[in-house]
Design brief:
Elements: E1 3-5, E2 8-16, E3 20-28, E4 34-42, H1 44-47, H2 50-63, E5 74-80, E6 83-89, E7 93-95, H3 96-105, H4 113-131, E8 153-156, E9 161-163, H5 168-172, H6 193-196, H7 203-219, H8 228-237, H9 243-246, H10 252-261, H11 273-287, H12 293-303, H13 305-310, H14 319-328, H15 342-346, H16 357-375, E10 431-437, E11 442-443, E12 453-454, E13 460-466, E14 472-481, E15 484-489, E16 495-499, E17 503-510, E18 513-514, E19 520-525, E20 530-535, E21 547-550, E22 556-560, E23 577-583, E24 588-593, E25 598-602, E26 604-612, E27 622-629, E28 635-638, E29 641-644, H17 657-661, H18 664-674, H19 681-685, H20 696-708, H21 712-725, H22 733-743
Helix pairs in contact: 4-7, 4-11, 7-10, 10-11, 18-20, 20-21, 21-22
């Protein structure tokens, strides 16, 4: 029989924290109507502390007045039989801490960047509402959460994000006896420097903590980790590892937002939750304009598929959703505390010595340490179950491999198939159909702009575009001033005179051919300073959601878009498909197709294709493109423009490993790899593919760079070419072969 607590029926315990115990309960109303709530009761051992209870009551009364979609609402506060309690909104989902743990178990050692930014932005909405709350007298209440940790950020299965325990954290510290009964135990890892030193707090302390949570979401690691006495000096000094040192794939603009949120100097930090929210919203609009709660729901549907099946609420994911999940999945493994010089280590002779006892011991100790840190985290309200998924054990990344070696398959003797039943012939690759979905596979013409440059509004600036040639088309400058944003097109060689502008960014469209080693430059000459803004051709279109297909670079293809498809884009958006191929010389070639058009492709390693549109929210239907092998005429033309045939590659002399290591560009590329600057490797080695001799080492470096940037499909293309050319004694042959085995379905 269920326990009763006043008008509440206690269904099951959700656990105990340092302040209270939580129950999932049913509130019974008129006519037998019931409503699920979370009932939080103050622990008996704390109820005897008058100062703590007095502060708890005051904060609970304030929390009950907060009404916002991103705050877990407090319905009732009271006292029954000497026990103080709160009745709060039941969020059908999990805490962010639980989501991070489950995601790590399922291969997502960091959350997809749009997902992480969205969760942080929704959290900031709730915090801003509370920070700006006024009392009955019209004066600000100056509320500060003080405990915005992943345990207190709740994510519902419908894609909602809510902040829980608002105000309770302040009550925890009211008596200034932080050592009692685990009060704030484990929470110090998210403290801002001013909170760690006991200074007076304002809304910027919560901004810092949101930055720390975002740091954890995109790197898979805490900004600070370890025992209290060991961590506090580092935390107070605010010396955390740079975001992109842990995960080089994190966009620099997103790293800049985290760094500003977590900066020690309060004057330099975002002054409010709203200001940080605007920065994240701007980043999302440029990098994931169609992102919504439905995308967050998709990730949760996958992560908690087993629970949904058990409850009879599972749904089958369609092809587009599976493609999105695959695109989000990180290819590598989380880095260790300090990454070894993997490039150099990889090139040492490969000798299989079996498992290392000391290595096993190190992994065990690392796993125990991580588990201990997570176990001391206090209870998150409203959706934390009795147990939490154990954190994924940190594994030292293998230099080339993106996945651990496959387990050996037991040898089972099978009967030899009778000769009259031969194996089916391999599928015909000369004719393929590529299905594009209008609400999934898109190529945005306006991706994230290049890095923004701050301008001195008091200065006059002369802005010039240095000749981009055919690499870049339709360059648009985006200026920001007190009146908002202003878009100004600029042509090659043109100079603009600019006054009273605070910043400038660049957007563009891809030209007919974009070689990675060539860039355009925006020159900014001010009264007292000169700045340069790089415009990378590969940033002129976003192919993140495009469909990718591997091609044979020695063959010729024709890509055709048929007429009469059921694809429909947004109002006023023409039905056009954008395509891009990576050529064997390291360059990209791009174009577009309209219904009935054909584009010739030659010398390509892979193809990326998608509808040219800015958003997918109002798209529907799809189209089946035809990809056919052709005879390889010297030149073909169609709606997609003209592309000159590169021809069949002539495999001449191959450069030895020793010779290639003496090449300056190989040395520079290896140096960049060692410093974690993986995207810069590609333009550095591009001229390598035009050497008189084929250079296997350049293909290997290219493949490793793609692995580090979580693009295993592209890495596989480079690695296969490396194995074709590399000498048998090349020291990286073994690890490359193992990587390709792991990529096989």
């Amino acid at each position: 029989m269920a326990k009763r607590f006043g008008k509440y029926e206690l269904v099951r315990s959700l656990g105990h924290g340092g302040m209270a115990e939580a129950w999932l309960a049913k509130a019974r109303g008129a006519a037998g109507v019931t409503k699920p709530v979370v009932l939080k009761k103050v622990l008996p051992e704390l109820a005897a502390q008058p100062d703590l209870i007095e502060s708890f009551i005051a904060e609970a009364q304030i929390s009950a007045t907060l009404s916002h979609g991103n705050i877990a609402q407090v319905f009732e506060f009271g006292e029954l039989g000497g026990e103080y309690f709160l009745a709060m909104e039941w969020v059908n989902g999990r805490s962010l801490a639980h989501v991070l743990s489950r995601a790590a178990k399922k291969g997502y050692w960091h959350l997809p960047f749009p997902v992480a930014a969205y969760i942080a932005a929704e959290t900031l909405k709730g915090l801003h509402h509370a920070h700006t709350r006024k009392g009955d007298d019209g004066k600000p209440l100056h509320l500060v959460h003080r405990d915005v940790t992943p345990d207190n950020i709740l994510v519902s299965f419908e894609g909602e994000v809510k902040v829980a325990d608002f105000g309770i954290a302040k009550a925890k510290l009211a008596g200034r006896k932080e050592t009692q009964v685990g009060v704030v135990k484990g929470k110090f890892l998210y403290f801002s420097p001013e909170q760690a030193t006991g200074k007076k707090l304002d809304a910027r302390a919560d901004v810092y903590t949101v930055g720390a949570c975002l740091y954890q979401m995109v790197t898979g690691q805490l900004a600070f980790d370890g025992p209290f006495m060991q961590v506090m000096p580092t935390l107070v000094a605010n010396k955390y590892r740079p975001v992109r040192e842990l995960n080089p794939e994190v966009p620099e603009a997103l790293e800049a937002i985290i760094d500003r949120a977590m900066v020690k100097d309060l004057a330099s930090r975002y002054r409010s939750a709203q200001q940080m929210l605007e920065a994240l919203t701007s980043w999302l609009s440029e990098n994931a304009p169609s992102f919504s709660a439905d995308r967050l729901k998709l990730l949760l549907d996958f992560l908690y598929e087993e629970e949904h099946v058990a409850e009879g609420e599972a749904r089958e994911l369609d092809e587009a959703e599976r493609d999105q999940l695959a695109a989000w999945r990180p290819a590598g493994k989380p880095p260790r505390a300090r990454s070894p010089d993997s490039t150099v280590a990889e090139l040492e002779p490969v000798v299989d010595r079996g498992p290392s006892p000391s290595g096993n011991r190190t992994l065990k100790l690392a796993a125990i340490a991580m588990g201990a840190v997570l176990l001391v985290a206090t209870l998150g309200l409203a959706s934390v179950l009795l147990t939490t998924d154990p954190p994924a054990q940190p594994i030292e990344p293998v230099p080339v491999k993106a996945l651990p070696p496959p387990k050996p398959t037991p040898v089972v003797e099978a009967p030899t198939p009778p000769p009259e039943e031969p194996a089916p012939p391999p599928p015909d690759q000369s004719h393929r159909t590529l299905k594009l979905l209008a609400d999934t596979h898109v190529v945005t013409r306006r991706p994230g702009s290049t890095h923004w440059k701050a301008l001195d509004p008091a200065s006059t600036w002369r802005v010039s575009l240095i000749t981009p040639g055919p690499l870049i088309a339709n360059v648009v400058l985006e200026f920001d001033d007190v009146n908002g944003k202003q878009l100004v097109p600029i042509k090659s060689g043109e100079t603009l005179q600019v006054r009273k502008k605070r910043s400038v960014g660049v957007t563009c469209e891809p030209g007919s051919r974009a070689a990675p080693e060539q860039i355009a430059t925006l020159l900014l000459n001010g009264d007292t300073a000169t700045q340069r803004l790089r415009i990378d051709p590969l940033q002129c279109a976003d192919y993140e959601q495009a469909k990718r297909v591997e091609l044979d670079h020695e063959k010729h293809y024709a890509l055709t878009m048929p007429t009469g498809s059921d694809a429909k884009l947004g109002q006023g958006v023409p039905l056009t498909v954008g395509w891009r191929v990576r050529l064997k010389d390291g360059a990209f070639s791009a174009g577009s197709l309209k219904p009935g058009g054909t584009a010739p492709l030659s010398g390509a390693l892979f193809l990326e294709v998608g509808f040219l549109d800015q958003t997918v929210s109002d798209n529907q239907g799809g189209v089946e493109l035809k990809l056919d092998e052709t005879e390889g005429d010297d030149e073909l033309s169609g709606s997609g423009g003209t592309v000159a045939r590169v021809g069949k590659e002539k495999v001449g002399p191959v450069m030895s490993y020793e010779e290639s290591m003496a090449l300056p560009l190989v040395q520079k590329a290896r140096s960049l790899m060692q410093r974690g600057r993986f995207p810069e490797v590609l333009p550095v080695i591009a001229p390598c593919f035009k050497e008189a001799k084929a250079v296997p080492e350049c293909y290997r470096l290219e493949g490793e760079a793609y692995v580090r940037m979580d693009q295993p499909e592209r890495a596989a293309v480079s690695y296969r070419r490396f194995l074709e050319l590399a000498e048998p004694k090349h020291p990286a042959r073994h690890s490359v072969t193992e990587f390709l085995k792991d990529q096989e379905p």
